[in-house]
Amino acid sequence: MKFARLLLALLSTLLALPALAHHYTLGALHIGHPWSRAMPAATTSGTVYLKLNNRGPSADRLLAASTPRAASAELHQHLDDHGVMRMRAVPNGVELPPGRSIALAPGGLHIMLMGLTAPLKAGERFPLTLRFARAGKIEVEVKIEDGLMPTP
User: Fold this and answer.
1) What pLDDT shows up at residue 10?
2) Which residues, in sequence order, are CB contacts of 88 under 8 Å at separation 6+?
3) Residue 84 has what pLDDT?
4) Quick one: which of 46, 21, 38 has its CA closest to 123?
């Protein structure tokens, strides 16, 4: 009886793994763990981070993002301007060279959400559409994390 329970628990865990997986594939592109940080209720902006891996032989480019959770979403980067960190839009998108990974992460490239329609609360998720020059569009789900680092 113990063995049957253990086997059932193991099987349940293995079947749940795909639901926990938080990655997406669009052609040769792999999009890993889209996440955002929980923000105070009065905050009207937020950020989305993720990892992009171009497994194909040709370059691609992340051109834009959109979500019903914000009035607008822009590709941004943090720059060190003579010792002062500044945020700037990336109007030409994010280049994805073939065979390379690019991280949109705190302190670097990211997707800036402006005009949030609701606070970003830990544990919630929301849709985000990414548009690429070659691969096209894909809708991913952004997990709102509590704290400084995401859980894989």
Assistant:
1) 43
2) 76, 77, 79
3) 83
4) 38
Residues in the chain: 152
CA–CA gap between residue 135 and residue 132 (Å, rounded): 5
CA distance 11 to 126: 29
Task: Count the neighbouring beta carbons within 10 Å of the beta carbon of residue 152.
Answer: 10
- Which tokens hold the place of 124? 């919630």
Sign of the alpha-carbon dihedral angle for 53, 111, 92, 81? negative
Using 50 as the pLDDT threshold, list the residues of the chain that sit under it: 4, 6-19, 151
CB 7, CB 122: distance < 8 Å: no
The model's pTM is: 0.82
Q: Which of 141, 144, 138 is nearest to 118 (CA)?
A: 144
CA 54 to chain CA centroid, Å, is: 15
Could you give the domains of the chain? 22-145 (2.60.40.1890)
pLDDT for 150 equals: 53
Q: How many CB atoms lie within 10 A of CB 47?
A: 19
The amino acid that residue 94 corresponds to is V
Determine the residue type at 81: D
